[in-house]
Amino acid sequence: MEFDILQQLNEEQRAAVACTEGYVRVIAGAGSGKTKALAHRYAYLVQELGISTANILCVTFTNKAANEMKTRIRSMIGDSDTGLVATFHGFCVRLLREDIHTMQYPEHFMILDSEDADTVLKNVYQENKIDSRAYTLTMAKDMISFRKHREDYLSWFLEMDLEKLREKYLNSPNPREQIFYGYLYEQRKVFGLDYDDLILSALYILKNFEEKRHKWQEKLEYIMVDEFQDVSAAQYELADLLSGYHKNLFIVGDPDQTIYSWRGADVHYILNFDKHHPDTQTIVMDRNYRSSPEILDVSNSLIAKNRLRVEKSLKPIRQAGRKALYNHARTVKEEAEWIAGKIKELREEGAGFSDIAILYRAHFVSRSLEEIFVKQQIPYVLYSGIEFYRRREVKDILSYLRMVAAGDDMSFLRVVNVPRRNIGNKRLDLLKEYAGAKGCSLYDALKENLQQDLIARSKASEFVDLIEKYRGIYKELKITDLLTGILNDSGYESMLRQSGEEERLDNLAELKQSVYNYEKETGEETLLEDYLQRIALFSNMDKKERKDSVKMMTVHTAKGLEFPYVFVCGLNEGIFPGKRVDTEEGLEEERRLAYVAYTRAGIGLFLSDAEGMNYDGSFRFPSRFIFNIGREYLNYVRELEPGLATNARHYISASERKLNLSAAGFSPGDQVRHKAFGLGKILEVKKEKGCYVIQFEKLETARNISFHAPLEGER
């Protein structure tokens, strides 16, 4: 069996698979077959070493990747039980189901997705008359996430009963505190955990309950983490903690593809892994099976300009093909027309529309493309719409299911008046006041007030009858039957049919299919509560693709995907890299993002930009991610005008000089000495202007001093 597992692998992949003990870091370049190596390593542990699947944890970055990994593993080990192959969040749900009782939470706690969080926050905003234009929901969620990660909030949150938490919320001195404590209060009412809480709660249990920590550490004899370049601080800590007993932690990733720092990822975790884990074995997988030599020449040339990386150069396995092509257009319309023309040429060569992807840095870039594609009848799919499980009709029906299983306030507010039952704001305010006074849910408040004159004049009793009917029988029903019953009895499906909303009905049919697939997967043990927890972790990639169409998406969305032909458009300064980049590390991440875009291509790579003006009035120069590529590796449709190329390079040089000097400079509060002005204190660092604001002792007013001025630090 060992021969069968290892014979399909190259030398580096075999080394990664057979290196089973201790700390192992695999630097796996784009297209190097890391998923294959991971799956084979899992099979090797099970088939060759006899390790039980129950004692192996394999962590992937997305649910889609986890499902693909399970399929590969099953094909090799012939066993439907793949143990713990999941995302970090999925694993934490598994841990919490077993041990969340230590936090005084029920086993079937509620997982709050992004839209649930919005619902909670809107309620808090409304109660406190907070202006969402001055402090947006996105800002609120970022603030809550930041505080949860930095304040060790669970240590006091779990000690505080619901009434005291409510008092803290009501007595909050300012809007930010109202938002934070109001959010926590609403969470506690329904025993809800958001995505941050899943990992933070798992860490809390492991760090504070020794017997639980030992249980999981001893159980997980081998831990493998995919896409390690994208882990956050909490995810890093979790992997490190879980591997603390057996010390068998196998990580796979590529520092050149770290593109999620805005989500907490830090490239230093994979770069410095060997420094924090003595005797780490590092294996570099640099054979690329995806892209032609010409595409790899472009990609290697680009990423070599980065400093924060492990030195490697992807080596092609595929035969030589066509050179990458670059086009500079006069207008965005001309750029879109050039792309459309190239697509038609590829079609004439035998390529399908679905073989082609168009990638861009920001969603707005797609507008001109869409207009031209509609005009020229080029079919396309835009991968930037609303994710399937966040679409209104899907979310509504899942909320009905949650009403049956839990009866939480968020689901109640979403569906109590859908279809219309004459339960508007006036009646809801009455119920909120009653629920606050009695300390009960809004649904219980409704049940206890059905005879109240205002409520009695609505169709509230029909809603209560519906929920109570299925609460009484849902445990004996298949989830598919429960779903069908609610769609019929609530009048929801009829409402959509009457209004002729076929696309929304199609989405509900797709939801039914997903439930059927879930029941088929899990067999007889299909609890509604388990299904709802599972669904809360799903992403937009679970929706089936449409017919033969060009795929259009951001580069972030394209991560992990590959296509025969790739167009990367909007390659302008101020767009890609974005204008908000203000640090050297930020610029390196933008370059990694371009590297990810280029390495999605297998056969053909097409790069383009267009002249024009940015929103701030600045000229749109061609991106440095064109100039970073060795000129010998790119075919230009037409040479850039000498003046344009010179001005672009001057702009880029000035921009990078500011970033480099800022990174090596001083911080606010530092004492410095200037050769003319003498001793001074730095008050502010203006990165966008490339200068410090310094108050010198000799001068009455502060001065703006350029980063490149000769300053000496003073102790």
Describe this structure in words.
This protein is of the alpha/beta class. The chain has 5 domains: 2-98 and 201-285, 3-Layer(aba) Sandwich (Rossmann fold), CATH 3.40.50.300; 110-190, no CATH class; 293-386 and 546-659, Rossmann fold; 388-538, PCRA, domain 4 (Orthogonal Bundle), CATH 1.10.486.10; 671-714. The protein is built from 32 helices and 22 strands. A 7-stranded parallel sheet has the order 13-14-12-15-16-11-17. A 6-stranded parallel sheet has the order 3-2-6-7-1-8, with helices on both faces. The chain has a 5-stranded antiparallel sheet with strand order 21-20-19-18-22, with no helix packed on it. The radius of gyration is 28 Å and the shape is globular. It starts with a helix and ends with a strand.
Question: Which tags fit this structure?
Answer:
Rossmann fold; 7-stranded parallel β-sheet; 48% helix; 715 residues; single chain; 5 domains
Describe, in short, the structure shown:
The chain is an alpha/beta fold and 715 residues long. Helix content is 48%, strand content 15%.
What's the number of structural domains?
5
The helix content is 40-55%
Q: Look at the structure and give the CATH class of the largest domain.
A: Alpha Beta
Number of strand segments = 22
